[in-house]
Amino acid sequence: MIDHEVRTYKSSEKLAREDQLAHKIASVAADPVPVDPQVSEMVINRVIDNAAVAAASVRRKAPTHAREQALPHALTPGSTVFGEALSTTISPEWAAFANGVAVRELDFHDTFLAKEYSHPGDNIPPMIAVAQHLGVGGADLINGIATGYEIQIDLAKGISLHEHKIDHVAHLGPSVAAGLGAMLHLPVDVTYQAIGQALHVTTATRQSRKGEISSWKAHAPAFAGKMAIEAVDRAMRGEGSPSPIYEGEDGVIAWILSGPDARYTVPLPGSGEAKRAILDSYTKEHSAEYQAQALIDLARRMGAQIADKSTIKKITIHTSHHTHNVIGTGAEDPQKMDPKASRETLDHSIMYIFAVAMEDEGWHHERSYAPERAGRPETVELWHKIETREDPEWTRRYHSTDPDEMAFGGRVEIEFEDGSTLVDELAVADAHPLGARPFARENYVEKFRTLSEGIVSEAEQNRFLDLAQNLEQLGADDIRQLSFVVEGLGHSGSKGIF
Q1: What fold is seen in the domain 2-280?
Q2: Alpha carbon distance 324, 328 (integer Å)
Q3: 109 with 137: CB under 8 angstroms?
Q4: Rounded to the nearest 5 degrees, what angle is found at the Cα of 383, between the Cα atoms of 379 and 384?
Q5: In 3D, which of 6, 21, 1, 10 has the Cα closest to residue 192?
Q6: Cα(378)–Cα(386) distance, integer angstroms
Q7: HSE-up (13 A, CA, CB side) for residue 241
Q8: In 3-state terms, what secondary structure has residue 104?
Q9: In Å, how far from its chain's centre is CA 167?
Q10: Hey, is 161 helix, strand or coil?
Q11: Which domain of life, per UniProt (predicted)?
């Protein structure tokens, strides 16, 4: 990997195009280096993972409305939509949008955490949509997805967005544009222009993940993927973008991030170096914010040791700055303690999550968020006994670049009414690559079958899994079948413009 320093330049300094971060990213996308077999296998795992969480959410309100917005945009050959008949094809940017909302709705797919947060599986819906429309084969699709993961993860390693209250999808727009450039074998200068456009139109505030969190949380990455497809389309036609987009005097660093005097270091693969960043990412066993994954596993373990949870006086979760301030009491969001809060808010409340996981000694993507579950009096009582505190050591480990030190969990102290205590800690989730039960192919397949049970027929499950697990060998016709059909899928009947 090569570390690239990125800073603001005055217009009079005339920063050369090849020295701009967007151009360096485009050069990585254009590098014809083969995809490692281990990376190809992980891409397949994540395609299955995305489909699993999309199947579980396909009948929910936000994915249904996204489909209803998308379906009027019919196009041949076009792209498929999760749940719809394979013969129903629409414009790829709208398919990416509809499928992206379905993937993100339950906050249940993969994650990478560093200076910035990311769900790099958000790269997959726009890649598949464009591949289906343009007749791209499996090997090129894998390369595009691997490139999207590489760029989003490398940007997350080097540039913090949340520090300035900018949503993390500002890294997703450029990564999708780069991945599409790789998949379509576009010239460096075309991908460069697309990256600049994609970043320019996908930079937004973090309010979508603050306070009363709405379903826009699921729409935001899908919208970024849609915008990136449109940016690539414009760039392929010869249209340009604001530049230098990162380094310009009125660019992203100068006015949206840390200002004209800031320096960022972004690692990118060198020429001929394989794109392996997907292997640094990790998926979720539980449907909740990633920082909750280890704490859910810890809550299950500790809950099993407490026969009468009404004897608990107080629970203190010592954890990282991010966990404390984003999903903990450090956020100072009263909605996180409200039994009538939205599902999107509850999955960003570690106090609620820890209480339910302790009581149930488990976690379910639907039952654990049901209004009647959130309103249970004993749960509300326990929930309000929980607080989080930032621990500098957990913050240090959260930001560590050493995989053996990196940690996203915490230490929990439970104080009982009689004065006794129970203390335990867990650094990484059981499903993490360094956890007690790291996810492997069979776990991804099991997750797909579990989440699609009662929604997708067994025959349709089998058909999709057969295609996905042979992704590298698939031709264009097979890629166009890379979706799943839900029999009797209904619509809400809502009315909008489309």
Answers
A1: 2-methylcitrate dehydratase PrpD (1.10.4100)
A2: 4
A3: no
A4: 125
A5: 21
A6: 13
A7: 33
A8: helix
A9: 12
A10: coil
A11: Bacteria
Would you call 480 exposed, middle or buried from its count of C-beta atoms within 10 A (0-12, 13-18, 19+)? buried
CB atoms closer than 10 angstroms to residue 367: 12
Runs of H (alpha helix) within 159-310: 169-183, 188-201, 216-236, 252-255, 293-303
Q: How far is CA 440 from CA 111, 432, 468, in A?
A: 16, 10, 15
Q: Which two tokens stand for residue 415?
A: 């104080």
381-385: Cβ within 8 A, 24+ apart: 381/310, 382/309, 382/312, 382/315, 382/355, 382/358, 383/337, 383/351, 383/352, 383/355, 384/337, 384/351, 385/312, 385/313, 385/314, 385/315
- Distance between CA atoms of 470 and 463, rounded to whole angstroms? 11
What's the pLDDT tens digit per position in 24-73? 999 999 999 999 999 999 999 999 999 999 999 999 999 999 999 999 99
d(CA 472, CA 326): 39
pLDDT of residue 460: 98
- Identify the sign of the CA torsion 210, 216, 221, 226: negative
Among the listed residues 431, 476, 143, 168, the one whose alpha carbon sits nearest the alpha carbon of residue 292: 431
Give the mean pLDDT of the chain. 95
Do 149 and 109 meet the contact criterion of CB atoms below 8 Å apart?
no
Contact 51, 456 (CB under 8 A): no
439 token code pair: 């996810």
pLDDT digits (tens, 9 = 90+) for 245-264: 999 999 999 999 999 999 99
Residue among 216, 207, 124, 119 nearest 171 (CA)? 119
- What class does CATH assign to 290-426? alpha beta
Supply φ then ψ for residue 179, to 5 degrees.
-65, -40
**Tokens linked to 160:** 């913090």
Q: Which residue type, as a one-letter code, is found at position 226?
A: K
The DSSP call for residue 470 is: T
Q: Domain boundaries in the chain?
A: 2-280, 290-426
Joined together, the tokens standing for residue 9 give 């330049």
Strand order in the sheet with 410-416: 386-390, 312-319, 410-416, 421-426
Distance CA 179, CA 148 (A): 4
Assess whether pLDDT exceeds 80 at residue 212. Answer: no
